[in-house]
Amino acid sequence: MGPEVDDPTTSAAAAPPERPAPTARVGAVGSAGSALRSLLRTREASIVGVLVASVLGASLMVDGFATGRNAGFLILDVTAIALIALPMTLVIITGEIDLSVASTLGLTSAVMGQLWVAGLPLEAIVPLCVLLGSALGALNGLLVTVAGLPSLAVTIGSMAMYRGLAYVVLGDRAVADFPFSWTGGATARLPGTDVPWIALLIAVLAVVFGILLHATPVGRSLYAIGSNDEATRFSGISVRWTKLWLFVVSGTVAAGAGVFWTLQYGSARADNAFGLELSVVAAVLLGGVSIFGGRGALVGVLAGVLLLGTIRNALMLADVSSDVLDIVTGLLLVVSVVLPTTLARVRERRPRPAPPS
Amino acid sequence: MSGTEETGAPAAGTAARTGPPGAAAGEAAPQPPKEHGAGDGRAGRRIRQVRELGILLALALLVAVTTLANPGFLSGQSVRDLLLGATLLTILAVGQSMVLITRNVDLSVGSVMGLSAFAVGVTFVSLPGLPTPIVMAIGVLVGTLCGVVNGVLVAAARVPALVVTLGTLYMFRGIDYWWAGGRQINAADMPDGFLGLARITLFGIPLPAVVALAVVLAAGWYLRNYRSGRELYAVGSEPAAARLVGIPVDRRVFAPFVINGSLAGLAGVLYAARFGTLDATVGTGLELEVVAAAVVGGVAIFGGSGTVYGAALGALLLSTIDAALPMLQVGSFWQQAVVGLLILVSIGLDRLLAVRAARRLRGGGSRGA
């Protein structure tokens, strides 16, 4: 066990739960864990580097990639993943996981379609759907925090249940007669540019989540929880309350993404975004967030989302069949975790004459 | 750089999750259920029996109700279909349980099964003269190789299993798509002897179901009676402690991945024999259903407890639900919702039993959680 692992928690435990505590705590982590910090920097920097390299490579080699029009499509393509990845990052940093997000998206979409068929105006449907997402997230959160069940198992269960309920609500029908003012509006570009307005929303949300995670006591406590939730509880942070809220936020954002998805593709279906949860988790992990919690940064996650989007987009433009994308995604994910671990081991063993494994 | 190594290593990561021993010994109960002795010990054994009896009861109830509503449910053909349907899930759930018991997970099983099923088809097409048993062995071998890849990455590179197998899920599926290139292999491309395997019955039980039963019994026997089998539980309960008592943790983590890969390969072969139509989408999304079957069967998702018998019962229950709902005139759309609810109820029940067992062991002491 290195000091790095214990650092956030021990300093959090040492800090009295008074007002000046947060700044003191952040300071302590900054100085004592400077090695960790520089490591984090390189980890995120390398993903951003790979992103920049692949964007440059795609611009040079793929016709039609480096156009504003294509950039707009790329952003619309990754919108759902980007939105859901924001709360997912926070959830994984606390050492939990939410696999039910894609099913929440599907259920929201199905309910949206059914309510539209029932004759409600979209002005009423949209807030109802988002509220439904909050409730679905709260159910996950309650099962994890109050009942004390492992979130991996809980959200596998709710993943099946929410998707099942989506089928119960809408069957295998599709509702596709939403008014164009809404469906067209969803993919509308910012005036005078090729940038869809949703990009602005993603950016604003990313900044909000980034500040929350990296610059507030709440954000610091998420790392502490992920490193050692027992110790964090003893230091006076309400672990359960924090986790409950994270699941609520996760459900809410997934529902928002569901509303957008439905309008973007103009079709409400129960199987919308099937399997998306693994893409989201893959993007988050690719972005350098540790699956065990306590480590990661939002910049890396955004780079991870964009990297997967860029590769997908470039391969499609280059007429490479999309199956290669799966191989690339998987390889990137495995390499991104194997490489740093192996490098660290090699570095550790360097004094010895034995060859590294 | 050493920071990555620290949290990257399974031992360190899981230690951080369960909390320091000092805190665990305190009056507040730690988050994961402390049923580490669930493989041994009287309380643990009772929990297991209650759990497995519970699934059996649920299964019996479901079958009884369905038969009352539709007497055709217990007809020979219907039961044979049910058993055939449960075969693949059971075999996969057995392999998954062994991985889960060591506190790892293998999300790539659906892709491995698809890949080896396609390998079987391609071998029949490109080498028509090859005897069927050899082709089947090739299918299992493909699965084994995939399992070795997973095992090496998890045990030797010490990367979290969830991340690795999520990566290989995409990789194996991608290779499958790339290999298939939109091709489909049909029953006409495969010899009748191979396709007839699913129709052979022993005492009225389809051959694949007999194979699944043999797999369950062998794995159960191994986990219960072999030293290395018992050590899988030790590794899953507390990897750091297992290392300290001298258990070769890396090897004990590696082996279940390889076995699971072989079993996924076997499932792929049986899939090819039963359905005869193969493309690159075989087994898509199956991984979470397999984990669900194991969890419903009482295998703890964070390792150290559960049996393959339970997992097999879980798989049988999920398959029976699939078959029974249409007969009960419940819309097939309810199926997945019911399965989801069942998973939540099962893990809730596990938690409840663990809490009660812990209270009993503590002599009625209060629980924080």
TrEMBL record, chain A:
One of the record's GO molecular function terms: transmembrane transporter activity
Keywords for the protein's UniProt record, in alphabetical order: Cell inner membrane, Cell membrane, Membrane, Transmembrane, Transmembrane helix, Transport
Localization in the cell: Cell membrane
This protein's record includes keyword Repressor: no
Residue ranges crossing the lipid bilayer per the database entry: 45-66, 73-95, 115-135, 142-162, 197-223, 244-261, 273-292, 299-318, 324-343
Family matches, as InterPro entries: ABC_transp_permease
Bilayer disposition of the protein: Multi-pass membrane protein
Extent of Low complexity compositional bias: 8-26
GO cellular component: plasma membrane
Region of interest (Disordered), ranges: 1-26
Protein's UniProt name: Autoinducer 2 import system permease protein LsrD
